Every structure is written in structure tokens, then in C-alpha cells.
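Supplementary Methods. Inverse-folding protocol.

Structures were first reduced to a C-alpha cell string of length 339. This string, shown here, constituted the complete conditioning input.
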């Protein structure tokens, strides 16, 4: 988990967290600081719910429970991916160790054979074995050590490929943790990190947030089925991705709700873009394979909020959500700007 707050915001969260820890008799260790810092920032609602339930049950947060929450809500993805890669690396090292031991044994045998052959050649009164026999033995052992070395080299080459594969797997795991699999957009985790960086960064400027919600989506799912609903979300995701190039960032916020971060744009300019996007969504046509029916009733509502100097992530989202709610209440399929 990344923390994007600036010094002032971080100090404020810590100022709120410490009295709570004292009140509930929470040991002041780094793990608990991280838990309660995250709690007061309200960045992981599931963690807050679990902590509240724990306090109701125990009156405090037992160490074992706190450690489990820390692992589950704050470092779960990092731990899981690290454990998988670690297991692969351990298996790889063990395999290489086994092959290295075999090669070392072959080398030792060859060394012994070479020594025996040299002693036989130096024996008083001539070689104890026929010269041809000694040469044949050396040739055979030389071939054996050559084959063993070649096998080990091949295994090292294979290991290199496996290492590259493990690196790719780790990178994919990290990517999967950040990307919504249905739409291909980044998810809420990335959204909060990027929005926090823009709001709390040292060179923070104005940023506008646009919340997008597909209208009557539950009714659409009930009428046409979840597969058709997924198609709608994929279409909307593609429009957002194509329509909002960098430095804008479109994400799937959750369910049928999306969000677009628009840095350095005013609310009015962002509303213009949102309205153009609204028209694109309204123009979506989906044809059902079985019935041949063309579905043309897809619309979306938009809420736009431009950041203020005192805004936090939560307050900016709240104002954009209120504007979105106003658009819904006003008849849907429209763009509303937060006052």
C-alpha cells in the first residue's frame, strides 16, 4: 500500500490516530501505527469495519487480530505474490544445487581417474596397465565430465529462463492487483494513489474529478442478463480509455461506476469533455445474438468537482458524488458540476 499524503496531511492523520490508540489501549508499535493511520484516513473501508467490530467485541485490538488485519488489508497482494515467487525461486535453487552436486561428483571422479592414470604411467618398470587401456579410460572419463558439464550448463540456461518467467509472473501479479480484469482500466487502488499524489504533492495544482455512473444498470442486467451488462461496462471502459488520454486517468471505481481524474483542467472544461463522453455512451448500440434486438437505451450520468485548496481525497470524492447524485435526481443522462 502506498501513502501519498504530504507532511501536513500525514501529521493530521497521526494526530487523530494516536489518541484513538491511547483510548483503546493499543500498543504503540509500527504495525499498529500503520493500522490506525490507515483507519483515520478511511482509505480502506473494510479495515475500518473490522476494527470497529473488534473494538466492540474486545474493547481493544489484540495483537494477533491486528497482525491479521495488517496482512489482510495492507500487504496481502505484496505478501501473496512474494510467497509465490519465493517458492518458485526455492525450487529453482534446490534443483540447481542438485545438478551442481552431480557435476561436482563427476569432476571429483575424473580427478581421481586422472591421478590414477598418472601414477600408472609413472610406475617403476612401466605402466601397470596397457597404455591403450589407460588412454581409453581417460577418454571415457573426459567424455563423461564433458557431458556432465554440458548438462549443468543446459540447466543453468533453463534456470535463467525460469527466472525470467518468475519475474514476468511477479510483474503480472502486481499489474493484476492494479487493473480491473473486465474493463482493462486501472482500479480504485490506483485511483486513490494517483489522486492523493495530485492533491498532496509538492507541486499540487488544481485537479478535477469526474464520477460516471451507468444509468439504470441493475434494471439493464435484470432485463438482458449479466453477460450483456458486462459488455456495456467493457464498451464504457473502452470509451473512457480512448477518450481520456494521459495525463487524465480513467478507472473503474466499482460496479457500474467509473471515475476520471483530469489534472490541470477546470470544472467547466472537464464538464465539456464529460458531456462529449456522455453523447458517445448514448450512441452505443449492442445487438443481441439470439433475438437480433438492438439495444439503444444505454446512458450515463456525470458528476464533476474541481479541487479546492483544503480538499482531501474524501472531500473531493464526496463533492463529485453529490454532483453525480444531482444528475441522477435531475433525470439522468446529464452532467452536473458541484457548486
Amino acid at each position: 500500500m502506498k501513502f501519498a499524503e504530504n507532511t501536513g496531511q500525514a501529521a493530521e492523520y497521526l494526530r487523530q490516530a494516536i489518541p484513538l490508540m491511547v483510548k483503546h489501549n493499543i500498543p504503540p508499535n509500527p504495525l499498529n501505527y500503520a493500522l490506525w493511520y490507515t483507519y483515520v484516513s478511511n482509505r480502506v473501508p473494510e479495515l475500518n469495519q473490522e476494527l470497529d467490530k473488534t473494538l466492540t467485541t474486545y474493547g481493544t485490538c489484540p495483537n494477533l487480530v491486528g497482525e491479521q488485519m495488517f496482512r489482510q488489508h495492507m500487504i496481502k497482494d505484496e505478501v501473496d505474490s512474494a510467497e509465490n515467487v519465493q517458492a518458485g525461486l526455492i525450487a529453482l535453487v534446490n534443483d540447481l544445487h542438485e545438478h551442481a552436486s552431480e557435476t561436482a561428483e563427476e569432476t571429483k571422479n575424473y580427478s581421481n581417474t586422472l591421478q590414477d592414470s598418472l601414477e600408472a604411467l609413472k610406475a617403476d618398470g612401466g605402466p601397470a596397465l596397457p597404455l591403450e587401456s589407460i588412454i581409453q579410460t581417460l577418454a571415457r572419463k573426459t567424455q563423461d565430465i564433458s557431458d556432465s558439464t554440458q548438462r549443468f550448463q543446459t540447466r543453468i540456461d533453463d534456470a535463467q529462463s525460469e527466472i525470467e518467467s518468475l519475474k514476468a509472473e511477479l510483474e503480472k501479479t502486481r499489474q493484476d492487483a492494479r487493473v480491473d480484469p473486465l474493463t482493462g482500466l486501472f482500479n480504485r487502488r490506483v485511483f486513490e494513489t494517483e489522486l492523493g499524489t495530485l492533491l498532496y504533492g509538492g507541486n499540487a495544482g488544481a485537479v478535477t474529478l469526474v464520477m460516471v455512473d451507468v444509468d439504470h444498470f441493475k434494471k439493464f442486467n435484470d432485463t438482458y442478463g449479466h453477460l450483456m451488462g458486462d459488455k456495456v461496462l467493457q464498451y464504457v471502459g473502452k470509451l473512457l480509455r480512448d477518450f481520456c488520454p494521459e495525463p487524465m486517468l480513467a478507472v473503474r471505481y466499482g460496479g457500474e461506476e467509473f471515475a476520471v481524474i483530469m489534472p490541470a483542467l477546470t470544472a467547466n472544461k472537464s464538464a465539456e469533455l464529460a458531456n462529449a463522453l456522455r453523447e458517445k455512451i448514448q450512441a452505443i448500440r449492442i445487438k443481441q445474438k439470439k433475438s437480433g434486438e438492438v439495444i439503444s437505451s444505454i446512458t450515463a450520468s456525470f458528476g464533476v468537482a474541481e479541487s479546492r485548496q483544503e480538499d482531501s481525497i474524501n472531500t473531493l470524492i464526496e463533492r463529485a458524488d453529490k454532483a453525480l447524485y444531482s444528475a441522477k435526481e435531475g433525470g439522468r443522462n446529464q452532467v452536473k458540476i458541484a457548486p
